[in-house]
Design brief:
The protein is mainly beta. Helices cover about 5% and strands about 60% of the residues.
Length: about 140
């Protein structure tokens, strides 16, 4: 699992723009997000001959944030090698704890590959994350 500390992010080739990290005392875990026209991405291993899933950990109460007089709805895209696989909106209506959401990665995006780029992208007035963990797995969580 990719965690948001310096070394694991470096090992996964972190790239970002308008991105922030922090630590949540409530969730007791580090997070990463991006705001406005921003992104953060990592290179992650996949199994080329299996159906793969992206498991992302969020805090269930994350919702719209206000910073420097601007409003950012947590409404963002998740991409694999430049292809959008999911649109996610966090509205703070889930559990008061960390939650995992699993996204199916189309087989065509991993076929014959050992690694893919996983990217979280936000647009003007939006925020991606906070993301508390990322894993690529070969069976969906239940």
């Amino acid at each position: 699992m990719l965690t948001f500390r310096k070394q694991p992010e470096i090992e996964h080739g972190i790239q970002s723009e308008n991105s922030n990290t922090g630590y949540s005392g409530v969730a007791q875990k580090a997070w990463r997000d991006c705001q406005g026209k921003g992104y953060f991405c990592y290179v992650m291993k996949v199994e080329p001959d299996k159906q793969m899933y992206l498991q992302v950990t969020y805090y269930g109460r994350d919702k719209t944030i206000y910073m420097d007089g601007k409003k950012f709805d947590r409404n963002f895209d998740i991409l694999i090698d430049g292809t959008v696989i999911a649109h996610q909106k966090l509205e703070g209506k889930l559990s008061e704890s960390l939650i995992d959401i699993c996204y199916e990665i189309p087989v065509a995006l991993t076929d014959g590959k050992e690694k893919v780029e996983v990217k979280f992208s936000s647009s003007e007035g939006k925020a991606a994350g906070g993301v508390y963990g990322i894993r690529i797995i070969n069976s969906p969580i239940v």
